[in-house]
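User: Show me an example of a complex going from sequences to structure tokens.

Assistant: Sure. Here are the input components:
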Amino acid sequence: MEKEKTTIVLFSGDLDKAIAAFIIANGAAAYDHDVTIFFTFWGLNTMRKDEVVNVKKNWLEKAFGWMMPRGPKKLGLSKMNMLGMGPAMIKHVMKRHNALSLPQLIELAQEQGVKLVACTMTMDLLGLQKEELVDGMEFAGVAAYLGDATRAKVNLFI
Amino acid sequence: MEKEKTTIVLFSGDLDKAIAAFIIANGAAAYDHDVTIFFTFWGLNTMRKDEVVNVKKNWLEKAFGWMMPRGPKKLGLSKMNMLGMGPAMIKHVMKRHNALSLPQLIELAQEQGVKLVACTMTMDLLGLQKEELVDGMEFAGVAAYLGDATRAKVNLFI
Amino acid sequence: MEKEKTTIVLFSGDLDKAIAAFIIANGAAAYDHDVTIFFTFWGLNTMRKDEVVNVKKNWLEKAFGWMMPRGPKKLGLSKMNMLGMGPAMIKHVMKRHNALSLPQLIELAQEQGVKLVACTMTMDLLGLQKEELVDGMEFAGVAAYLGDATRAKVNLFI
């Protein structure tokens, strides 16, 4: 019997939306779905390494790189961000409730074989290079996403 | 013949997105779909009672409870909120066009048997308790959502 | 064999989300899917003509019309809008990478036969009239959207 399939486009670079995306992805993987998360636009920031990676960029790519959050620990909230107090509060309560943090959720997704795909077109636009994203990602365009989505029942845009 | 199924994750706590979610849900229910709305994160605020409910909370849960909007009448807009003038304008034009208000859309959804499910994990995080949400809701986690979504054709994340 | 179907609700009026919606829609159309984009709330602004159209409006409809962006060239970003510098930066890098601009993506969608449907209920609320939207759109309500979505595998809310 063919496995159920779930795909998520993670467009948003907000901490709360990224958490929601990875909780759904990990839940679906636990139910033995084939799961793909397709990271595009600001969602790519979720998968940036948190250290500066030495790659060649023009000034505009450098500007984007400097302005955008560097990895899951730097993301803000979609609501009640309050200059970073909101994310700190959310992280505090998640820890108190023994909920997995976003970096842990990402690690779990990797362990469970969730396919993590970076959108090459928006990487180009934002000047992000493969070396700047966490290891083990795949790189593809909208055609690959649509190939997966057409075979999936649960398709979300977050 | 099995009924068509529709699920909506309501993540957003914006008035305009909540209205869109309930219009789609009520439309699908009118077409005899089994419809589930799964309220998570800020979307839970849509279903808060508008009076203060006397429950025991720690200081951080009290802070969240105080900062977040208490029910559908208190939500802001995702765009053009303009310190509350935007929501007043939208409510005004909806009334003039005899469109159902969000509280009426919620009531209609309940009458049509739309399954309204509060995400227990985010309730814990935000310190929201069952007594604070409107009556008649169900309480479940991401597994229950995925169970419904996998059987549905229309799955939206709002 | 019946064609695959894809539907997108474009609720957002942000440039970056509109670009994502049209890239997915054009990709699906290139794979010979029947594609529908259903424009509702702020998403309608994507399809406004950029000139002022002489139609009769009350003062509130005039106020909405004046405050909302007039067409794809006037949209802001969901993140890093920076008083319009963000959209200028994105448009600049899209041009440098020979990516299609949003007006070109819209044109391509029309050429590929993507069904572009304006939500009549939110047109009424926001006081937008048929003459103010680009030519060749269809006009319908949530029932028509659900009719398409129920037959589609990929259904996204953007």
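The lines above are the inputs; the final block is the predicted structure for all three components together. The domain at 5-157 of chain B is CATH 3.40.1260.10 (Hypothetical Protein Ychn; Chain: A,).
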